[in-house]
């Protein structure tokens, strides 16, 4: 029926307006050379031996062609030569309709081509009798930037280094241009079809007249006619779809969303209704809801995965971690998991994942990330060390991505006499069934309690794995070998899970452990449960939050593993009027084999200037300590109230600092001052110490 012709047109307007290019679009603005900015060529990673295929895909996508992948050129691979021959690469490009200039090329010609917004495929030598295709996207007097299909986009090398590698491949290059001149007429915004008889439409004559008015872009007239049709044909659902289409084209997205939702519920078999609902949700900011609607009709297909920002971490490491497959349908679960898994890379500071609809029922998934430097700048490193030394008597040193996998290598030294610790730790993103992070740690520590209790020393070797199984489910498992000075050796099995709901405003975390004795001692178990609620999720808005939890451990466990209340928000069980360390000892009265705890807080920002935010808040902490470390079996109730200030930046890259003053309300009237570093939600699943 012709009622769909302008509705489909409205949807195509959404797609083409979001597309990144049109085939054979002219890209010779002439401004690139002056600005010396890398050409934004879409990056395509290679599979085995297909660097040439990936280079073709990148060049064709630059000129606007979509649906091109490296694997489509696998038939060109000469395995004896370890890839695609240069002659075959040039030949297939000519067969596909491109103007090709290939062979030994001068540096001046490559520089001029890139200046004219024509990326160049270059062959470089990477080893003894080993060659590799790259796509040059910037050429200047001092450096060259190219996309490396085997590693990452935007690889930067000095001009001298590139010339050395290029000379090893006889300075072969391929320049590709369209062979046809693009039309300047543009794409018409409407296509009139031969009029159909009025009898072909229900609810005549209003619906037919409304369709004609809409096809001529007389949207207000079409809207009035459809309003009449609603009154005259209340039981005709097609009127809802046409109304939604008109409101969509009028950019009245809320109205279009309401009408499309109602229509899709009444006529679930109409694919146009689902397209309109998905497009309305997308423009309304509901990216996940839009995918749910598109998935009903088997859309959208991922055309390209772009990852912008990281220079050191390999593209393949990030893309495999995100598990977004090019050519597959993008589902809400896949999209949300990609967000979680990218944010889980230890050496990334901030991440963002979004998608853009493009023509043909496809989307381009766009990820942006900020990675940490290999080592923090000396000034920031010294300031951070001074702050942690002041507040916690410890220093850290972290090295980011030495393996170019998003990994972090950390060293810690804590000289606090109550619980000194030395540790080295490695966190490496990997894939064991599902993408996750493997943690390896070796530590040496001691625990000194009050009341004359003996010092316990412990050495630990740990291996663990954490991963997102679903967008709302985080899992962790591991094993530890522990050697205690008081109770001998144990092999400890650990497992945990965390559920995050309501945009991370609600979370429930559970951790369990079982220690198996290796030297004839008694086995023991321990468990921890945490629940948290916060509103809103934005860390720098007015916030109300609540937390509850319970910790328990077996009687045979070393005292150093007992739950311990006290200290600021950075501690396991905050109790801010009661320091976690008193007179260089861990207070035995705050340690117990069972502790039930919780808290309530309200926070409010009061000032934001030059990116620095100041907030104030009030809180109530509580804990009931049972079977405490000082030998008392009766439960001791602690209730602390107080207020504090929070200082930080509006950037998610840096944590905020929270300083609190609290007073004990029951059991004792102690005053306490505490400080802690806070990070935004979600509250993550942590490893028991």
Task: Please supply descriptive tags for the structure shown above.
15 helices, Ubiquitin-like (UB roll), disordered N terminus, Serine Threonine Protein Phosphatase 5, Tetratricopeptide repeat, Cathepsin B, Chain A, 689 residues, 24% helix, alpha+beta
Chain-wise SSE layout:
Layout: H1 5-18, H2 32-35, H3 51-62, H4 86-95, E1 98-104, H5 107-115, E2 120-127, E3 130-139, E4 143-147, E5 155-158, H6 159-167, E6 172-178, H7 206-215, H8 219-232, H9 238-249, H10 253-266, H11 271-283, H12 287-296, E7 301-308, H13 315-322, H14 332-343, E8 348-358, E9 362-371, H15 378-392, E10 394-400, E11 408-414, E12 421-432, E13 434-447, E14 456-470, E15 473-484, E16 488-501, E17 506-517, E18 524-535, E19 543-553, E20 592-609, E21 612-628, E22 636-649, E23 656-664, E24 671-678
Parallel strand pairs: 7-9
Antiparallel strand pairs: 1-6, 2-3, 2-6, 3-4, 4-5, 8-9, 10-11, 11-12, 12-13, 13-14, 14-15, 15-16, 16-17, 17-18, 18-19, 19-20, 20-21, 21-22, 22-23, 23-24
Helix pairs in contact: 1-11, 7-8, 8-9, 9-10, 9-11, 10-11, 11-12
What does the model show?
The protein has a 15-stranded antiparallel sheet with strand order 10-11-12-13-14-15-16-17-18-19-20-21-22-23-24. It has a six-stranded antiparallel sheet with strand order 1-6-2-3-4-5, sandwiched between helices. A three-stranded mixed sheet has the order 7-9-8. Helices cover 24% and strands 37% of the residues. The protein is α+β, with helices and mostly antiparallel strands. The chain has 15 helices and 24 strands. The protein folds into four domains: 2-18 and 196-284, Alpha Horseshoe (Serine Threonine Protein Phosphatase 5, Tetratricopeptide repeat); 37-177, Cathepsin B, Chain A (Alpha-Beta Complex), CATH 3.90.70.10; 301-371, Ubiquitin-like (UB roll) (Roll); 448-678, membrane protein fhac: a member of the omp85/tpsb transporter family (Porin, Beta Barrel). 38% of the residues are buried. It has helices at residues 5-18, 32-35, 51-62, 86-95, 107-115, 159-167, 206-215, 219-232, 238-249, 253-266, 271-283, 287-296, 315-322, 332-343, 378-392; strands spanning 98-104, 120-127, 130-139, 143-147, 155-158, 172-178, 301-308, 348-358, 362-371, 394-400, 408-414, 421-432, 434-447, 456-470, 473-484, 488-501, 506-517, 524-535, 543-553, 592-609, 612-628, 636-649, 656-664, 671-678. It is globular, with a radius of gyration of 31 Å. The model is unreliable at 1-26, 28-34 and 181-200 (pLDDT under 50).
């Amino acid at each position: 029926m012709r009622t769909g012709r302008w509705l489909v047109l409205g949807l195509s307007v959404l797609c083409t307006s979001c597309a990144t290019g049109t085939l054979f679009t002219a890209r010779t603005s002439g401004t690139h050379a002056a600005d010396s900015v890398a050409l934004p060529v879409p990056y395509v990673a290679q599979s085995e031996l297909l660097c040439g295929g990936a280079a073709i895909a990148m060049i064709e996508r630059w000129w606007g062609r979509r649906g091109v992948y490296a694997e489509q050129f696998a038939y060109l691979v000469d395995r004896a030569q370890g890839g695609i021959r240069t002659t075959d690469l040039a030949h297939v490009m000519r067969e596909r309709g491109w103007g090709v200039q290939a062979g030994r090329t001068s540096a001046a010609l490559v520089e001029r081509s890139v200046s004219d917004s024509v990326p160049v495929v270059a062959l470089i030598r990477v080893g003894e009798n080993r060659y590799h295709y790259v796509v040059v996207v910037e050429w200047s007097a001092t450096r060259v930037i190219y996309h490396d299909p085997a590693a990452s986009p935007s690889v930067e090398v000095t001009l001298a280094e590139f010339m050395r590698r290029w000379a090893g491949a006889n300075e072969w290059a391929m320049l590709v241009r369209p062979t046809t001149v693009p039309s300047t007429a543009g794409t018409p915004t409407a296509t009139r079809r031969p009029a159909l008889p009025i009898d072909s439409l229900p609810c005549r004559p209003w619906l037919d007249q409304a369709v004609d008015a809409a096809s001529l872009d007389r949207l207000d007239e079409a809207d009035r006619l459809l309003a009449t049709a609603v009154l005259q044909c209340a039981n005709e659902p097609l009127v809802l779809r046409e109304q939604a289409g008109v409101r969509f084209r009028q950019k009245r997205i809320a109205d279009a969303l309401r009408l499309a939702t109602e229509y899709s519920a009444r006529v679930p078999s109409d694919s146009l209704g689902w397209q309109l609902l998905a497009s309305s949700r997308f423009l309304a900011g509901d990216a996940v809801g839009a995918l749910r609607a598109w998935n009903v009709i088997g859309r959208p297909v991922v055309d390209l995965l772009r990852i912008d920002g990281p220079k050191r971490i390999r593209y393949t490491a990030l893309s495999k971690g995100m598990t977004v497959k090019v050519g597959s349908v993008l589902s809400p679960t896949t999209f949300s998991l990609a967000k979680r898994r990218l944010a889980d890379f230890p050496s990334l500071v901030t991440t963002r994942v979004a998608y853009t609809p493009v023509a043909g029922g496809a989307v381009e998934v766009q990820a942006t990330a900020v990675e940490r430097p290999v080592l923090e700048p000396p000034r920031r490193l010294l300031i951070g060390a001074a702050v942690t030394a002041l507040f916690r008597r410890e220093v850290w040193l972290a090295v980011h991505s030495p393996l170019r996998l998003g990994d972090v290598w950390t060293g810690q030294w804590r000289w606090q006499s109550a619980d000194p610790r030395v540790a080295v730790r490695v966190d490496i993103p990997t894939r064991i069934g599902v993408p996750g992070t493997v943690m390896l740690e070796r530590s040496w520590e001691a625990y000194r309690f009050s009341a004359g209790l003996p010092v316990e020393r412990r050495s630990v070797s740990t291996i663990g794995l954490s991963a997102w199984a679903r967008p709302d489910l985080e899992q962790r498992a591991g094993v530890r070998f522990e050697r205690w000075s008081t109770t001998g050796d144990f092999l400890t099995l650990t497992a945990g899970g965390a559920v995050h709901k309501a945009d991370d405003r609600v979370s429930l975390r559970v951790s369990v452990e079982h220690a198996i004795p290796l030297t004839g001692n008694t086995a023991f178990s321990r468990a921890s449960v945490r629940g948290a609620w916060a509103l809103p999720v934005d860390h720098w808005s007015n916030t109300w939050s609540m937390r509850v939890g319970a910790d328990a451990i077996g009687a045979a466990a070393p005292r150093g593993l007992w739950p311990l209340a006290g200290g600021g928000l950075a501690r396991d069980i905050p109790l801010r009027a009661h320091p976690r360390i008193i007179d260089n000892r861990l207070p035995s009265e705050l340690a117990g084999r069972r502790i039930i705890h919780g808290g309530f807080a309200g926070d409010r920002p009061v000032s934001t200037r030059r990116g620095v935010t100041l907030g104030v808040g009030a809180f109530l902490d509580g804990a009931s300590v049972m079977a405490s470390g000082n030998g008392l079996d009766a439960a001791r109730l602690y209730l602390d109230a107080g207020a504090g200030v929070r200082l930080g930046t509006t950037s998610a890259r840096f944590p905020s600092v929270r300083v609190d003053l609290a007073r004990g309300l029951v059991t004792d009237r102690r005053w306490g001052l505490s400080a802690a570093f806070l990070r935004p939600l979600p509250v993550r699943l942590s490893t028991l110490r």
